[in-house]
Here is the input.
Amino acid sequence: MLPRLMIRLRLKPEQLTEKEFNKIHCGSFRCWLADPRNATHCASSGIPDLAVAKNGAIARSSKAVQCFGRAMAEMHSNRRAFTSGMASLLLWPAFLAPVRAQQLERSNLKLGVANKAHLYYLPVTIAERRGHFRDYGLAIAMSDFEGGGQAFDALLAGSVDIAAGAYEHTLRAQAMGQDVCAVIELGRFPGVVLAVGKDRSFKSFADLKGLKIGVTAPNSSSHFFVLYLMAKAGLMPSDASFVGVGGGERAVEAMKTGEIDAISNLDPVITRLQQDGAMRVVIDSRLPRVNYGIFGGTNPAAVLYGRQEFIAANPATMQALVNAFYKTLRWIATATTDEIVDTLPVEYFLGDRAIYVKALKANLLVYSRTGIIRRQGMNSALKMMATFDPDLLDKKIDLQRTFDDRFIKRAAVLFDDPTNSDLELDERRPEVDLSSFRD
Here is the structure.
């Protein structure tokens, strides 16, 4: 019995010449042969011609195809089992390399990030700890900066190849005449929380005037967030003073000791301060309803972005990088809280795993499900920045140039149908009527 794919093609293995079989380009048969156990089985059964030609075509006999068909028939009893089993086969590390259609231009990359321990950057740490970069042939050297503005500056200076940071940096870059764009959305909400000291009177954002406000770093997402809220209240950036406190123990202590009057920061710092009763939340962008109230919808937060010149020169490398991050987003969407926390280093917990678990639960809706930045999100981000940044207010920003969606669209296709990665550079396609398949 042959796999249903070949049945739908109305072909029998004994009718196929080698040239015809290679034209069909059966990725499943190629990967099945890659398993030395199957090759050994065929050899012991007297089945010849199991070599792979230099051009990647399969040299095979009809008996080999029949052997493959029997193996697949035994393995898959219905459509769902077939799909699941084939995906597992194709993702097996033993033949991940042969499945890659394009050679990476660069396998070693320098990635800039800011306060990697923040839950804002959870996908970065998960991709690193679970080996998703390695799965796609990449070796990533990370530089962890105090704030997103520093990572952005490092990218423009060329000290990092790519950066993970706020989408707003792509807008700032264009206003500066720099061609920088995002390639995948990691967070659809900022996840930033603004809070004041527990005993401080606060009735509206106008009360921020004259306060000393702690942010992770100047020109970071936490800084932009509070500047926007101040602008909505009619305040200027100079109406408050800002202090960079980072995103760890220093931020916690600055709030507890009264060094700062208010704080704009992210988890796990925020949950730690809440647990200790050291502050009062004013606005919480971890919640979807709050974002819809402030921005009118989603507001792209963490993205992976780079210089267009680098992206254009390294398309296969960028595709591999986006594939790794998309795989990470899909894993986060289905993993349990414990599975996620168990993946992370204990240093991230600020001394208390239970608090970190609570912080994670408060942020699970923040992460992107698709990796795609919606046009509404781009518009809301530009509107937000233009309220307080005169450089953006006076410049015509081409939002189309701030997000290159080619890589994430292909990543989604390859994730759901890995056999496509074996056919990327091949114009030939067998016609398969999937609607006529029956369990």
Remarks:
- The two ends are 15 Å apart (CA to CA).
- The domain at 108-185+299-358+379-415 is CATH 3.40.190.10 (D-Maltodextrin-Binding Protein; domain 2).
